[in-house]
Amino acid sequence: MKKISKVEVMHHLEKEILNAIPLYLKPVETIWQSADLLPQSDNEAFFDHFKELQAKASNLSYDLLAVLIGDTITEEVLPTYETWLSLIHPVNDGTEGGWSQWVRAWTSEENRHGDVLNKYLYLSGRVNMREMEISTQHLLTDGFDIGTARDPYRSFIYTSFQELATNLSHRRVAQFAKQEGDDLLAKICGHVASDEARHATAYKSFVSWIFEIDPNQMMIAFEDMMRRNIVMPAHFLREKGLAKGESFRHFSEAAQRLGVYTATDYINILSSLIKEWKIDAINNLTENGEKARDYIMMLPSRLSKLAERISPQPSSHKFSWIYT
Description:
This protein is mainly α. Helices cover 69% and strands 0% of the residues.
């Protein structure tokens, strides 16, 4: 079996990735913007809409608001993610290739998420925006280490998983917001979740293409990422005066406690990817590739046993972001 290099594979995929832009991303002129969803100050009814927004936001539970803020900060640290994605092509010769165009177009869609959520939180009157902005700046400064280095295969595994996770998180926040009487927030988070679902489909397709061309190295990359565990991009999240990552732990506990994103969700996403990529049916694997496949196939049941031991932790942390 001739071993193919990742450089060759990425160059081979340039055209497919370029063609993916109109398939999985929407035209700038027609996609939703923050102004379509939030009260506009040039509207005569602005103050009525503003008061209605604040009245409904006042009913949101503490944990839901904490998760929403954590999600917002995660979305706002987009420059870090764009920089990372722009570096994962093994050869960056400055040409205007498919990958460069994809990264910019994907970024332009993602940029709207932090924008609309930040504006909603600002208008809600429940958030200490300065403390939240400090956390956002810290997260940009601290960066992240998600275990992919500059490897495109590992990076595509990560983005496939992460986009599914963010879709689920925003969709669940929308559901809880609706239950708590905030239909505007539910609508906003529903729009964001829809974008994340399209993005997940795109990155999953990139992985599928690589499995067809280079199944062995792709399988080993999948195993490696799952051995490391898929960490969230905001795993260094902190508040003023706290250690790096401490606020993320409290944010994750709130998400688990509320049921927005749980250990079981992690397992379900992994299982969905195994099924999506037909891991059990992939051929032409070396001995190392077969061992990697065996590990992946057994992992959901192993993680399920661990998840059974996890019980939601009671709320103890008071976030500096939230007015009490």
